[in-house]
């Protein structure tokens, strides 16, 4: 915290703004009063002069003794508080003016010690601000019952002399004010800084050091008090930090719960997705691929065949007289036959062969990298396995057979629909020739058939 921005300096500026104003007003009033008192005492001192010189002046005017009068007037003039003296006699024969006096227009004029007009020797502030005391002069001789008026005498002083006397007092008052002000300034500054600035600085730096993710309650080193505004502020701050920590812990907990829930939901969604895919791609009764999955995978394998330039075969299979099995033994037994049949297919095929149930009791197997000869061999093997299988149900033994149509395609030679069509035709031939047999597609034979475009 820079000194320029410190709270102590700002408080001082405010306090001393007012204090300085009051101090200046008080000092000015004090100086004015001092000046007035000094002027008053000057005036009193001047008023005492007639008791010393009054009788001598009266006597010299009464006797027209000009020399005596002048010497007395010079004596008065030499007094340190006198700047001028004027004697006005009633017959004007003994009129005398020495030093600075005020004329009939109240303007300051100057006369030398001989009473001749001259240039003022009074200079400086207040030199022309004359003030005077006038007293009458009378003669009290034994021949007169009452004092005989002779005229009047005015003794002048000026403000410069008052100021000269008061100067030292002014200086003391000013020094006094400045020292008091500075002392107060340093005392207040020191204590504000120590009792306000330092704890606030400590508070600020401890807040700055806080770890924003894990703030801790703080302590302040204030040995001179156990309860003040700063400590109350610190307590409020600590309460706030406690609340923040509690909220943060609750939030973390909530986040964790949310995280766990999201993981759980994601897992469930993943499982649901897998189940849905399973439903869409796997036939629930037999465990082989659905019609849709078979078509997708078969397309992929045909493309692989083109890429690898290998031959691909298809076997189309249909269980013989399956309707009769259903009719005689019931639908459940029919299902069992389908499952048994699918198991034989799965056991007979390689991992990358694609087995699909295209509908009802109709199945197809796509054999990658397998030519017609291999496909016929596999079909025959399956046919024999099926024919050799027996299912015992309700003390009845069930035998069943299947018919097979086989075809092959070179890379890119036929589309999936075309080879499925060919295999289907071969299957139709197998059925036609008495069932429980394997027949391969013969393009020429198909062309020679009555009704065919080639026949
Ligand atoms: N149990 C059972 N029967 C099914 C299922 N899907 C289709 N079927 C039945 O399979 C029978 C198929 O009969 P058809 O198409 O006449 O053929 P088939 O009786 O096998 O006669 P051929 O194919 O000429 O030997 C129908 O009766 C269908 O109801 C199934 O999932 N389970």
TrEMBL record:
Residues 237-264 form a coiled coil. Residues 310-443 form the GGDEF domain. The keyword RNA-binding does not apply. It holds the Pfam family GGDEF. Keywords: Coiled coil, Membrane, Transmembrane, Transmembrane helix. PROSITE patterns: GGDEF. SUPFAM superfamilies: Nucleotide cyclase (SSF55073). This is diguanylate cyclase. It comes from Thiomicrorhabdus heinhorstiae.
